[in-house]
Design goal:
With 244 residues, this protein is an alpha+beta fold. It has helices at 2-10, 36-39, 42-47, 84-91, 93-101, 162-165, 190-205, 216-230, 233-236, and strands at 18-23, 27-30, 52-54, 62-64, 68-75, 106-108, 131-133, 136-137, 141-145, 149-156. Helix 1 (2-10) crosses helix 8 and helix 5 packs across helix 7 (190-205).
Length: 244
């Protein structure tokens, strides 16, 4: 999450868009305004030694298992004539393409006439542009806007152990009504998934991908954010951050 924010802050309008891929272990990520103590049994979370981190984006509390996640950063100018919903539909189109390449019939909740619902837990809610396969939600996506940048990140659930999380929440978690590639009997390697996701992205946006790493300034910014923000209880639990 520190790397995501470092990339967002350093991005300039005349730069090429950035696509970042990364992985998770068993953990929770919280939306910017999630009230964790209302939904999560903190004592159980600590006993299970499950880490948590608060994102800079909105949305609910998201459960992570063996996820493959992406972050996308591009000039806000690209969507100056459209709203948030239109940007979700367009930017998530590469995920629809990706799931179809895996052999699934994927669609947006809105197009499938599924009712929207709200919850503090991501997988127990339905937003219009959630991706649905066989009636079940696949991962989640969230956005953040600045004056000149549009940032979006999301997760592709590969595997998830319900027993790890089933007694962590005070309320309905939605985990039984979600899906993963493992639950759908799709056995592919991380390398295959990564390659297919990049291929889907390039085709969906007619893009040429150039491999890169963080520059020195971005790495220093990420290190600083990790120490002073994302490793701090004041941010992760209380959603407060005192800038240094």
């Amino acid at each position: 999450m520190a790397v995501d924010e470092a990339l967002l802050h350093s991005f300039q309008e005349d730069e090429m868009p950035i696509l970042r891929l990364y992985r998770w272990k068993d953990s929770l990520s919280l939306g910017r305004f999630s009230k964790i103590k209302e939904s999560v049994d903190m004592e159980t979370l600590c006993k299970k030694k499950l880490p948590l981190v608060r994102r800079m984006t909105g949305g609910g509390i998201l459960v992570h298992g063996g996820d493959l996640s992406y972050s996308l950063i591009l000039p806000r100018e690209h969507y100056k004539h459209g709203g948030v919903k239109e940007s979700y539909r367009h930017l998530c189109s590469f995920l629809i393409n990706f799931y179809e390449k895996l052999g699934f019939n994927a669609g947006f909740a809105q197009d499938l006439n599924l009712e929207s619902s709200k919850s503090n837990i991501c997988m127990a809610s339905h937003e219009p542009y959630d991706i649905i396969i066989d009636g079940k939600k696949m991962g989640g996506n969230a956005q953040r806007y600045t004056s000149h940048v549009l940032f979006q990140h999301g997760s592709i659930p590969i595997s998830l152990n319900d027993a790890t999380f089933d007694d962590v929440f005070f309320e309905e978690s939605g985990l039984k009504n979600t899906s993963t590639l493992q639950r759908m009997k799709k056995d592919v390697t991380q390398e295959q998934l990564t390659s297919l996701l990049l291929e889907s992205f390039a085709q969906s946006f007619d893009a040429t991908l150039i491999k890169d790493t963080l520059n020195l300034s971005e790495q220093r910014n990420a290190d600083d954010l990790l120490i002073h923000k994302y490793n701090q209880k004041s941010w992760n639990i209380d959603a407060k951050h005192n800038k240094t």
